[in-house]
Design a protein that fits this description.
11 helices, binds phenylalanine, seven-stranded mixed beta sheet, alpha+beta, about 375 residues, two-stranded antiparallel sheet, 9 strands
């Protein structure tokens, strides 16, 4: 068994040789440790304060003549560190071997539950609507939620102070009295401003579907939320007619709710479309027989639409939208309402309360 020799000469070669012998012995003895009692013996032999190998190594230093002390000291320190490390890792080795023997696994412990994430039902509905239009060749466009008065109203043919602005109870950003009205900021009340933003960016023909969040100063109740979602559509080309609008929306509603759904167009008014219409679909809850959701009428109003008003084209005439040459249609639908219908939910507030018990039903 290894014992610490007395050093005869202090040349670098002899010091290295002594250190190598010690290291080899350390490695060999530590590899033989296989249980707690082995380990204690091993530890004491190498590290006991009285007579342990580490302690004996200090004698090397004591015995070394002045000029050799530096060289000897460096080697002694290195060897001591190795000894400590070897003792520690021998212990780790036997503890993990013991854990391995019992499988290291207590199957009576409760498992770690990983909650499943899922698309929010409104976002899922928005994506579904978007893909119906993508399949018809539409591209997706988006715009800012904080919008200027110009894009939200003026460019869409709502003149300043026109009563049509009252249809959309608007949340304005405070403290902008010194800016010209057209630059003042507000939370967009609809996705229609992205129609104009897109026509400024893209020359005709365009076919766009525009999803996004919108805000209105409505008191929250079962069917209103001050923040909700719309999906807008815009198609501009030569010779686009109201027939194209009807066919497109009828197809889209059938794709969303099933082929037996019927659509009805009822005259309406929006400043940025002329003529304008509301689209109703036969009630998918009761199959048009009459129920609470459709207020016994058999029909549910789902979107607004119309032919793009020539005054809207005037604002982007320079980018190729000469109202004498192009025509188009636009529509906008409330995605939250469609989600309510699709999932048979009776309170829009449930979508925005963040209650995991509600949301995890969609996972
Ligand atoms: N922006 C309108 C609204 O929010 C809906 C609409 C869009 C109507 C496009 C016509 C054309 O009420």
């Amino acid at each position: 068994m290894y014992s610490v020799p007395k050093l005869g000469d202090y040349s670098a070669a002899s010091l290295d040789q002594a250190a190598n012998e010690l290291r080899a012995a350390l490695e060999q003895e530590s590899s033989l440790v296989s249980n707690d009692s082995d380990w204690k013996t091993f530890r004491d032999r190498w590290m006991a304060r009285k007579g342990g190998i580490t302690t004996q190594l200090s004698d090397w230093l004591k015995a070394a003549p002045g000029p050799a002390k530096r060289e000897v000291g460096m080697r002694v320190n290195d060897l001591k560190a190795r000894i400590e490390q070897a003792v520690e890792s021998a212990q780790q080795r036997i503890t993990s071997a013991r854990a391995g023997a019992t499988g290291g696994l207590d199957i009576s412990l409760p498992g770690i539950r990983r909650p499943l994430g899922a698309e929010h039902p409104v976002i899922r509905t928005v994506n579904e609507i978007v893909s119906v239009f993508k399949a018809m060749g539409y591209s997706v466009a988006e715009g800012p939620e904080i919008e200027t008065d110009y894009y939200n109203f003026e460019s869409l043919n709502f003149p300043p102070n026109h009563p049509a602005r009252d249809m959309q109870d608007t949340i304005f950003i405070a403290g902008q009295e010194s800016s010209p009205q057209r630059d003042r900021l507000l939370l967009r009340t609809h996705t229609s401003p992205v129609q104009v933003r897109s026509m400024e960016r893209l020359k005709p023909p365009v076919r766009l579907v525009i999803p996004g969040k919108v805000h209105r100063n409505d008191a929250p109740d079962a069917s209103h939320s001050p923040m909700f979602h719309q999906v807008e559509g815009l198609a501009v080309d030569t010779n686009i007619t109201f027939r194209d609008l009807k066919g497109t929306l009828d197809h889209a509603m059938k794709a969303l709710f099933g082929s037996s759904v019927q659509t009805r167009f009822r005259p309406s008014f929006f400043p940025f479309t002329e003529p304008s219409a509301e689209v109703l679909v036969s009630c998918i809850i009761c199959g048009a027989k009459g129920c609470r959701t459709c207020k016994q009428s058999g029909w549910i109003e789902l979107l607004g639409c119309g032919m793009v008003d020539p005054n809207v084209f005037e604002g982007v005439r320079d980018n190729g939208y000469d109202p004498g040459k192009v025509s188009g249609f636009a529509f906008g639908m409330g995605a939250d309402r469609i989600a309510l219908m699709k999932y048979g939910i009776d309170d829009i507030q449930l979508f925005f309360q963040g209650d995991v018990r509600f949301l995890e039903q969609f996972a």
